[in-house]
């Protein structure tokens, strides 16, 4: 899977994710980095909540643009873009469980190793 990344100038900055983080979310980096990226994004989303408060009070037209962009839904059944925070949390929990399970699985002892104990 290849992520379509549009070039931006330095003055434009990034969206919520850097180019490398987009690749990680798309599965083009290690599972470990993908998991970390999801955590980074969750922290940024908390900051966006604070930004929304400011926009609501001082720039409601920008808040409306933000809502239009974020709440846009795809009608294409082949589009795999998550449109809800619930989808993101569900996927993150599944990733966390998989990482936890892989680090907690006991190593299997070979029969020959048992005889040497």
List keywords for this structure.
mainly alpha, elongated, 61% helix, 117 residues, coiled coil, 5 helices, single chain
Low-confidence sequence ranges: 80-86
Strand content: under 5%
Structural class: mainly alpha
Gap between N and C termini? 48 Å
> Total strand count, please?
0
Give an overview of the whole structure.
The structure is a single chain. This protein has a domain at 19-72. The protein is 61% helix and 0% strand. The chain contains five helices and no strands. It has helices spanning 19-25, 31-58, 60-70, 85-104, 111-115. Keywords: Coiled coil.
Annotate the secondary structure layout:
Blueprint: H1 19-25, H2 31-58, H3 60-70, H4 85-104, H5 111-115
Short description:
This protein is mainly alpha-helical. The protein has 5 helices and no strands. It has helices spanning 19-25, 31-58, 60-70, 85-104, 111-115.
